[in-house]
Every structure is written in C-alpha cells, then in structure tokens.
Records
---
Amino acid sequence: MTSTQHTPNPRDNFLRENNGRHQIHPMTHPLIIEQRPPRIIVKGEGSYVTDIDGKTYVDGVGGLWNVNVGHNRPEVKAAIAAQMEDISYYSSFAGTVTPPSIELSTKIIEMTAEENMARVLFSANGSDAVETALKLSRQYWKLEGEPERTGFISLKQGYHGIQFGGTSVNGSTLYRSASGPLLPGCYQVDSPWTYRNPYSEDPEALSEAVITQIDRLIQHQGAHTIAAFIAEPVQGAGGIIVPPASFWPRLRQVLDKYGILLISDEVVTGFGRTGAMFGARGWGVKPDIMCFAKGITAGYIPLGATVINERVFAAWQKGIDPTGFIMHGYTATGHALGCAAANATLKIVEDEDLPANAGRMGKRLMDGLKDITNWSSLVGEVRGKGLMVGLDLVADKASREPIDPGKGQGEMVATFARDEGVIVRPAGPVIIISPPLTLSENETDKIVDALIKALRRYEEEK
Ligand SMILES: Cc1ncc(COP(=O)(O)O)c(C=O)c1O
C-alpha cells in the first residue's frame, strides 16, 4: 500500500502553521478550531487515509459517509480526467448541456424505475437536493390547483442539510436556533426511536403511536395545507435511528390517505449504505421524491440530485404554461465533472454490488460490537443498518440519559480509537461509524478491535 505513505515536505510546515487560522469549519465554534486545529489528511487509498504525520488509519467515517467506493479509485479519477480533456464545465441553463449529465440522468431514472421515477434535477450538494425537493413539491401543488398546500412535516432528530428550507424541516433545535426565524408551516413529530421514546419499547406499538401523531397533526392543520412529509429512511446525523420495519409502509399509507407527497432524503442512504440500493426500497416503500448526494459521486466531486416520480412529473405534463417553468437550478446543475464522477461511481456500486457488501459488513460490525453494552459503562446501545452504525453514549444506563457532549467523552473514545488506527466520528452523544461500502472483513474487524480497545481504555482512564 505504497500510496498511503506520506513523504514529509516543506509545505507541511506551512500547513501546520496556518491550519485552523483562516478557515471556518462546519458545526463547531471557530475558537475551538483555533485552539485545537483539525487533523490534516493528506492521502487516501481504499478504506485507509493517512495524516500529515504519516500515520495511516482505517477510515471509519468514509470521508463523511460519502466515499462509498473507497479512496483513490482509478476508474473514478480516469472518468473525471477524461471529461476534463474534453470540457470541464458548460451550463445546463437555456439551451446547452454536456454529455455526462445526459448519461447520468438516464442511469438514475433506470436505477429508480422500481420507484417510478421520471425526471432528475441536478445540483451540487445534499442541501441543494433537499431545497429542490421542497420547492418542487410546493410548485407541484400550485400546478395541481391546491396552492394552499405549502406545509412540511418531518421527524425530530432528522437532518436535512443547512439551507433555510432544510434547516426549517430539521428535527434538532441545535441546528435551527442560530438562524431563525425559519420557514413557517414546518412541523416536527416524534421520531420512531425505540431506544428513547415516551410511548413503548415495542417497535410496532411505537410505530403506530408515531403514525397516530402524524395523522392527528394532519387533521389538526388540515391536509389541504400540507405539501409534503420529508424523512431519512434511517436517520443519520441525528444519531443513527433505525425505525421499526412497519414505520415507512405505514407512513406511506397515512400520507396517501391525505394525498401528501413523501420525500425520501437519501443523501446518506442512497446507493447502498443501508444494505439496499435505496433506503426507502429497503423498507418496501416508493417515495414521490428522492434526494441524493454524497454516495452518488463517492465525494470525488460534489453533486446533488433530486428525482421526482411519474405522479409529480404529471403536473408538468399538462402543457407548457408560465406557472410550470422551473425557476430553480444552480450554476453547478449538471456539472460535467460531477456527472462524470457519478457515472463511474454508480458503475462500481452496481458491478461490485456494494449494497450487498454493506449489508454483510454491517452485520459483521454489529455482531462484533454488540457485546460492548454488557461491560462498557458508557455505551447504552449499539444500533444500525448496513454500514450506518452508532454507539449511543449514556451518562446513566438505567435512565438512558445521554452524555453531555460538552464533557468530551465521545472525543476521548474517538482519540483512543485513532491511537488504535481507526477514525470514527463523535457526533453529539453518538459515535458514528460509516466506512466505505467496499470495506473488507479484515478492515471491519480492525474497526471492531479498535473500538473495543478504545472503550476498555476509557474504563481505565475515565
Ligand atoms: C440526510 C441528509 N440530508 C442532507 C444533507 C446535506 O448534505 P450536504 O452536506 O451535502 O449539503 C446531509 C448531510 O449530511 C444528510 O445527512
């Protein structure tokens, strides 16, 4: 594995000196970054990354649950380079297009045929894909002659990116409070979270309780005011929350009762991470709109995509009318390099059947980690689906009270895991594990070993 090696060079000192001094990093306080500059990652190969000090780690985060095909794949690099030889960028606005977006749109509609998807609108990020979905769902209802349908319902603990629409439907006040006032008419209901809820430990009873809550909210607000329900098939950033198996099918039923659109935010779950090609497909549910990003290009180039089904697209098929113009789109829409990267990435996802590998390695990971709750004072639950796995850290095992993230216990465990050669991500009170979907058995076992050692060391040093 020679390409994980880093040869020290004069630039390294410049990087160390200026690291954290001029750049604002997401989701933290700027002064924390100044005091504790981030780790500088200089190389990646397969499931491994190397830092500036020459230490190599298993990438248990998968970049940011996006490098699904692993780092440094020659096929993806070659596709990007070949496209650059032709042209790096040309606009998708007003009468022009570049070849990769035509190929990618065809591929995505083919891959989502089971969900009856009809059209795709490209963007640059998951947040864009969500914003596009929210705006198109409102326009859909205007075209359908129900302009009052503007409201959105979502789940607590949900994460839908950082633009104003996405922030408004976000299920955590942590993200919302700094930038309000937000969009009116956005309602959050309880997440069907078996480990922490006031209703029931029984997954099916819990699922019904949340469905009843949704039904009652819709009745209270009036179905004629609600445009869409948006949710992640497995909640990611909110703490790896896997809903009971009946939840998504029951959600689809209750939304159908009122004609409300279902937006599946597949930014993390899309293209294999949960063990199915799409998260909603894994629950046997066909959404009306799907949001993609991250794994679509495995992070090699940013790209977002919002896909609408036949039902939604039918509103635009009635004829050409000024109200049907889609006054939305990004300079990056259909970006030639992003789409070229996605074409090569999706070929790997299919050729290597990465959803199946995510299912197998996810099970191995969970099997390896599940005993931890029997001896660790910190880990209350190990949960996940496919290669989205979380360790829920608790202050008190009996009451399941989460740790106070400010006390740094998650960071401590992550630091110990890094000492063992594995990077994992503490996100609030949950340690998230989301490696590349190409992960091997041996690499899976390395993550398990490192976390067990890190948590044992925590018990000794706490
Ligand atoms: C479910 C979900 N939706 C949307 C987003 C936003 O994507 P991006 O950070 O690419 O804007 C994320 C990012 O993690 C996500 O997890």
---
Amino acid sequence: MSDRHILTAVAWPYANGPRHIGHVSGFGVPSDVFSRYQRMAGNKVLMVSGTDEHGTPITVAADAEGVGPQEIADRNNRIIVGDLTGLGLSYDLFTRTTTANHAAVSQEIFLGLLKNGYVFPQTTLGAISPSTGRTLPDRYIEGTCPICGYDGARGDQCDNCGNQLDPVDLINPVSKINGETPKFVESEHWFLDLPAFAKALGDWLGTRKSWRPNVLNFSINLLADLKPRSYTRDIDWGIRIPLPDWRERDDKRIYVWFDAVVGYLSASIEWARRTGDAEAWRQWWQSPDADAYYFMGKDNIVFHAEIWPAQLLGYNGGGDKGGTPGSYGALNLPTEVVSSEFLTMEGKKFSSSRRVVIYVRDFLERYDADALRYFIAVAGPENQDTDFTWAEFRRRNNDELVAGWGNLVNRSISMAAKNVGAVPQPGDLTDADRDLLSTTSGAFGTVGDLLGRNRQKAAINEAMRVVGEANKYLSDQAPWKLKEDPARRDSVLFTALQAIKDCNGLLSPFLPHAAQQVHELLGGEGTWSVQPRIEEVTDLDDGRGYPIITGDYETGQAVWASVPITPGTPLATPTPVFTKLDESIVEEELRRFGEGGE
Ligand SMILES: [Zn+2]
C-alpha cells in the first residue's frame, strides 16, 4: 500500500454531439479502470475532465440550427454527462470549458508563456471575403486538405486526418457563405514557439521508457518537424486573448486545442475550489512525487505529448529561452501519455454522418454498462485498431461473463445458500484448496502490476484466467457429490467463496457495477464499489448552472488485496449478475445500424 498522488487526466469529449462507443473505448473506460485500481491500491487519485465546448465544429452545428453555440454546448454537455455517469466513469470532477474558471486559467497560461517569450506575434495570411471585405472565420472556408487530399477540410482543421491547418494551406479554398474564393490579407496572430522546446521535449521523452512503444515512437518522431503554431485563430467563439487591444476583439480567440488541454489544470483547480481547500490541486500538480497519466485516442497524441508539455515547459520557464514560472508556480509534466488505437464497427470506421455508429446512450438502454466495459477491456483497441462486432460482443458476454464469471458466482453461492444458508465453516484445507487460494490471492500482485503499467488487456486476461482456475477447482471437487461428507463439502464451498471474493476484487476496476452485486451476494454490507453521481452546481464565478460528475470514492470498501470472508455470514439464493444475450440481438442490431447509409 502506498499513498501516491495520481492525476488521471482524461481527454475532453467534444460537445458537438453525443459520444459513441468508439470514443469511450479510447479515453473513457481505460482511464476509469486505472483510477479505480489506483484507489483500491491506496493511492490518492484525482480524475478530471469535462466537455470541450469551443472551436469550429460547435459553431458550425450552431449555424446549421440557427441557435447560439452555447445552446449546442449546453445540450450536448448534459447528454455526455449522463452517458459517462451511466458507464460508471468515476470522475472526481467532470466539468466543461465554458466556465469562468477555465477561461481565467487558460489566460494565465497564455500570459505566463508570453512573459517568458514563448508566444510571439506574427503576421500571417488571413482570409477575407472579396465582396464584403470582412474577415472570414476559419470555419467558413473549405477546401482540399494539403496533407491527406480530403475534400471537405476546414480552414482550421481536417476532420479526415486530424491535422491542424491554416486557411491559406487549403487547396482550392472556397467560402462556404457564397462560394467565392477568399482573398488572403495580412492578419496578426500569436504563435507558440514550439522549436524552442525541441531540446526540452526530447530530454523529457528520453526519460519516458515505460510508455507504450507505439505512443513513445510517435511522440519522438513529432520532434523532427517542430514549427511555431498559431495560438490564436480567426473565430468569434472561444476564450478571449488577455491583452490590451485584443481582449475586446470579436474576431480573435485562443485556438480551441490550446485551451482544451489547459482543462486538466483548470478542472483540478475547480475541483479544489469546490472542496473548500482552494490550494488542494497543488498536491497533484507540484509535488515531485505526484504522477499524472493522460488517457486518449491516438488522434490526440500530438496535443498531449507535444503541445501541452510545451505549454507547461514554457509556463515553467523550461524551454531554450529560460524564464521563471508564472503565478501558479512550476507545474508537473505528464508521467505517461496513455493512448489507445481506434475501435471500428463491423469493419467500418465510426461515422455519425454515415450512421456507422453506436451511441453510448443507445447502448446503455439495451445492455449493461459492465458488458461494454468488459468488451472494451478484453477486446478493445489498447495496442492496435480492433473491431467491434455484435456477434463478438454477444460471444464475449455469454461465454466469458455469463458462463465463466457469472456461473462461478451463481453456482457456488447457490449451493452454499441451499445447504448451509451462510458462508460455511471450513475444516482442514487440502492441498487443492490451498493451491486455489494461493492463486487467487497471489493474483493481486500480478494483475496489479499490469494495471499499474496500463497493460489492461493482459490484466483482465490474467484475472479471467484465475476465474477459470476457480471454475476448474469447483468442477474437480464437485461439492454437489459430497452429500455424504458435509464437512468436506463445506470446506470446498468455503474455498470457492473465498476465491470468488478474491476474483471480485481483481475484477472490480473493470466491472464496478457487478462488483457491488457480488459483494452483496457474498453477504457484504454497505458500499464496495462507489458509482459516480451527477450534481447540479453553479459556476463559481458567474453563477451559471450546469451539471458535473463527481463522487465520494473514498467511502467505498474496495481494496486491492485478498479480504477474508467470514464463516457464518448469512447467504441468500443469488440472482444472476449478468444477462445472457439471445442470438437474435445480433441481427436486430445489424438491422438498426449495420449497413450504414440508409
Ligand atoms: Zn487531411
């Protein structure tokens, strides 16, 4: 047991629509498995995120509906908060980027970078409409992506390859308002001097040996081509630039990506302010012993392994130009950037517009959250792109959760409830009994080591292998044949129940809802596994109301160790923990989503 401070920084879901299961397989479930494990192991976890609400796609959605961008953000923020809570994601604070606190923290980081000379003004080419002479915001310019050749790239970003663009980069740019070719005139912006961090970023990445090799190699390769990047954009929706003559301008804002990553810090500060100890965030951001793990899909690596560390280094005064920390003091860089690959669906890339999509809320209406969490952990895109198919989802659920883990729980507790009515008193244990218990209790070491290093797929496979051992033990010992030898039968059932208690601990980070049920089926009282809750709060600075996700996770009893069961604890006939899925669901779901298109 240790009590390290661990920041779990979870990628911010973008609030232009509901999130699908591909999104939550990248940032959501892995970050929660990690946090729940670390809390069970006795560490002090702060898990933060929120909805990312600035930037062009929100304004495009708002324009399409004829409403303001805040209305779009408010609606999707509420949907996303509901979805992530339904999945049991245990955020200490899930907030949003349109809070007054977030704007203030983002502006402080900008000013700290400016003070140390790492942002500088530069004249660049900005688009105007030739017919009206007015600035054309990035979102109103479309063209062909110069990097991947995609036709519908926007002035700030290509949605196909995910690269950040400038309008002047687009091939054949056109105005979306009237189809004319924009004219490019000089426009002043602020740039982040990324080349000034090449050495510091290289030194830092050189010490990050434990990262997933694909993430580390990708991050190191980014350093070969560092160019200054525009910190500000031509857009009217976002955080204002905190400088005289700039603050009031309606056509310039901080670029959405440069404020979104500051969200990890601003959410930590908001969390601290809400606890009544406004300085509490510093234990996760400034203690040399604290660790920070960032979770995301692979399309976001550049912002977490290059841009955000550069912002932190610059704020601390740690780039080529030196400098001193801003008013918050020096801030910790990420310990690890934990990136997943992509989940596809039935062999296709997820696409909301082509309806190749399974939204989280639709999924949770028909299936248990833990069934999806299990699939993501055991078959998700941890190291390579993987495919979600309904047939495989059903197979995993039925063969592994229901027939493997659920059956072990059900038949052992049923037999003990029927024959004894309580956890039986064991006699002398045999070698077979002791072997099983040493396997199940020993697994806390092996599975915990894997979880601490974010090898989650190996971790759940090892936990399920142990479940298999317990099932085999039960079949070999066949307590149902021991009617004539109740003393031996009771020893076998006691051993099986202790093994279940251990396996339930091992599986708790992955299956937090089932873990609470199994705890109760074993006669446990109170809360084993705490679930997040939605709380309606008011903005700490401007009084606006919004929902947050939070929870009192330290009140749960879940610990990362073998906990002895107590003979004599009353047991009732169990209800099934998992639901077997009928073969017909595969065809139903394929009809609902499958072919895409119509
Ligand atoms: Zn592209």
